[in-house]
Design a protein that fits this description.
- With 389 residues, this protein is an all-alpha fold.
- The chain has one domain (3-206, 220-385).
- It has 19 helices and 4 strands.
- Strands 1-2 form a two-stranded antiparallel ribbon. Strands 3-4 form a two-stranded antiparallel ribbon.
- Helix 6 (128-136) packs antiparallel against helix 7 (140-158) and helix 18 packs antiparallel against helix 19 (362-381).
- It is globular, with a radius of gyration of 20 Å.
């Protein structure tokens, strides 16, 4: 990189850090830990970027190459988070702060939404968390995906009344209906069996391709190079627990996209009073207030800032391949499916899959089961949009 390029990189990094510090100070409220949640979001963004922690790529590698490392890292992450969540959710509070898990009804709405989301993951080339951190790292295609994600999520919010009429069971947390020790033992047992089956099925086709021998480079150099996926998975589990302890609920992403889409729609003349979803107390209040009063929005902004700073440190900001018009069409369709699917399924790969299963919610398990065939179909559709497998 040239000296001019290095100076520009340093200036952008300084700008990102200054924006993080300024926003953190602005958000500071003794009674509401928004500034803390912003910092947690920044750490999530750094971890996601440094671990290149994806869900879409992990499923694609599983189906196409029998490379199971990504999916096994997901299982480890959710298992560790289950162990961290259980004692706190069993008590219902953490140092005086009330906490609750990520729970939702179990029915056709979740299954359909997760299936749509799975297709969208493969066409868009990212999931909820993946869209955020790749956008923050300067990928122009993912900015289109993020915009479509918000549009699809808002679109689905207008249809929620219809979807909620489909057959469904009420939210079911195994920790409550069985017992927390029993639910944890059951989930850890299932994760262990799945991990063993995946390890037996898998072929490590990428062994040694990008892993440097340990301790052969300075620590600061190793920090800005890609982190081992299981290290990133462990850190994400810890940061999800930090979110639960701070916000009172686990890590979520896509509610903010619905809100951002709705706020954009109001600027174009849409009237919220005409829709029952947006006249509910929580949604109505969120629309009236700034996005900086919304915890999910604040954390999403933190993820964008964290990925931005990490990409600047690694000097990879904005490094993206040239794309054809079909690639952009896939990004648009994929983003819409991501947003629509996540909204009707009560969450994405983070809010429903990761946080839902870690909360022992049955809807999280249903989400995972329905998203897998969606991903398979999405992989089959990729070549029609000039997307390589």
């Amino acid at each position: 990189m040239t000296t001019t390029g290095s100076k520009a990189n340093h200036m952008l990094l300084a700008s990102g850090l200054a924006a993080t510090l300024t926003l953190s100070i602005t958000l500071y409220q003794p009674e509401r830990p928004l500034s803390v949640l912003l910092i947690i979001g920044v750490l999530l963004g750094i971890t996601l970027y440094q671990g290149r922690f994806g869900f879409a790529s992990a499923y694609r590698n599983l189906f196409l190459y029998r490379d199971t490392r990504g999916v096994r890292a997901h299982l480890w992450m959710i298992a560790l988070t289950t162990l961290l969540f259980a004692p706190v959710l069993a008590q219902g509070e953490f140092f005086g702060r009330q906490v609750h898990g990520a729970l939702a009804p179990v029915g056709w709405q979740v299954a359909c939404g997760a299936f749509f989301f799975g297709i969208g993951m493969q066409l868009a080339g990212g999931c909820g968390s993946g869209t955020l951190y790749t956008t923050g790292s300067g990928n122009p295609k993912m900015l289109l995906v993020l915009t479509a994600f918000c549009g699809g999520s808002f679109w689905a919010s207008l249809d929620m009344n219809w979807w909620q009429q489909l057959p469904a069971l009420p939210p079911i947390a195994m920790g409550v209906h069985i017992s927390w020790p029993g639910a944890v033992i059951f989930q850890i047992g299932v994760f262990s069996l799945l991990a063993l089956a995946l390890k037996k099925y898998g072929i490590n086709t990428f062994a040694g391709s990008s892993v440097s021998p340990p301790f052969q480079k300075p620590w600061h150099q190793r920090l800005i190079e890609p982190w081992p996926v299981f290290v990133a998975a462990s850190l994400l589990a810890l940061l999800n627990f930090a979110t639960l302890a701070t916000a009172g609920h686990p890590w979520t992403i896509t509610w903010a996209f619905s809100l951002w889409g709705a706020k954009a729609a109001t600027l174009l003349g849409w009237i919220p009073a005409e829709n029952s979803f947006w006249t509910a107390p929580f949604q109505s209040s969120a629309l009236l207030n700034s996005i900086f009063n919304d915890t999910t929005s604040v954390m999403n902004i933190g993820i964008l800032l964290g990925a931005f700073c990490a990409a600047q440190l690694a000097k990879t900001f904005g490094s993206a391949l040239s794309l054809s018009w079909k690639n952009y069409v896939a990004a648009l369709i994929g983003g819409l499916l991501l947003g629509y699917g996540a909204r009707i399924a009560f969450g994405c790969n983070i809010g429903a899959l990761f946080s839902g299963i870690a909360s022992t919610s049955l809807h999280g398990w249903l989400w995972m089961a329905a998203a897998l065939p969606g991903n398979w179909l999405g992989i089959k559709l990729r070549p029609y949009f000039d997307l390589s497998n």
